[in-house]
Amino acid sequence: MSTAPGELSDDALSFLNEYHLASLTTLRADGSPHVVPVGFSYDPSARLVRIITFASSQKVANARRGGRAAVNQVDGGRWLTLEGAVSVTEDPERVAAAIAGYAARYREPGERADRVAIEIAVDRVLGRA
What we know:
The chain is of the alpha+beta class. It is built from three helices and eight strands, in the order βαββββαββαβ.
């Protein structure tokens, strides 16, 4: 299935709120994929994936170059990939939204002075949920 982010079914949205980790794929400077496990939240009204992390991580370095990224969540035969333009924010309100999304889906994260958020503006969804 390929669908627009605004057309996600209730089942797909429910799947995106279940407790599952995902793989985040960003691109290194040489164009090769960098794939790491992450927790993430999805805001369907903003069509935005949010991932909390620390400023010196490789995924942040990759995201700061812009371009595109994807998160892929799998549970047996159910899977969804959310793709779009990637960016990094240090804005306190946007980072707080990422923390709140993570806490609601997983657990309250520990404090970090160097916390930032990776955001993916979702424009393509693939999968079967």
